Amino acid sequence: MTREEIRSVLERYLAAHPDRDSDVLPLAEALDTPHDVTSRTTYPLHVTCSSAAIDATGRVLMIHHRALNRWLLPGGHVEPGDRSLYGAALRELEEETAIPWQHAVSPPTHDVIPVDIDVHEIPANAAKQEPAHLHADFRFAFWAKDSEISIQPDEVIAFAWRPPADLPTPRLAAGVAAV
Questions:
Q1: Rounded to an integer, what distance in angstroms lies between the CA atom of residue 132 and that of residue 122?
Q2: Is residue 110 over pLDDT 70?
Q3: What is the 3-state secondary structure (H, E, C) of the chain?
């Protein structure tokens, strides 16, 4: 995945949500450095991708993340083989929940514009020798066909289909509810 791909998605997102430029300022600044923001070892910020998988009743799939002990969208770090942020979000959805990418359908325009980009702090993890850092999380929305969920037990404790109001931020909840 290239810096140009990330910058292009960020530009499309800001064109759709011009009021959010200050929210993504750390990401924009990181893209102006020579650092590889797709590498999970780049600090103080690197890119991650998440999936807001929405079922037929409008509920969103959330996972209870083992390391952070929080309910989150399925998602994670970009990997060297990922060619797009959208593709990384689909890969993470399948890895963490076993929902095949073929069962995730993008609402119109949501394959090119994330429903949200959230820059948030991740606490230090001594076991992984990681300092506190920021994730710039590109969150894509998908309508999920009925699929059997099978969690990745190394990273996920449980899963639940929840109303959008239960999502981690009000902005994400509003964005998903509008899909």
A1: 6
A2: no
A3: CCHHHHHHHHHHHHHHCHHHCCCCHHHHHHHCCCCCCCCCCCCCEEEEEEEEEECCCCCEEEEEECCCCEEECCEEECCCCCCCHHHHHHHHHHHHHCCCHHHEECCCCCCCCCCEEEEEEECCEHHHCECCEEEEEEEEEEEECCCCCCCCCCCEEEEEEECHHHCCCHHHHHHHHCC
Give the per-residue pLDDT at 75. 94
Return the bridge partners of 119, or none: 136
Mean pLDDT of 44-66: 94
pLDDT of residue 102: 87
Torsion sign, CA atoms 165, 170, 176, 177: positive
What one-letter code names the amino acid at 8? S
Q: Characterize the bridge pairing of strands 45-54 and 70-72.
A: unpaired
> Which amino acid makes up residue 161?
W
Tokens of 83: 């060619």
pLDDT of residue 90: 95
Over residues 147-154, mean pLDDT: 84
Instruction: Say what the pLDDT of residue 105 is.
Output: 84
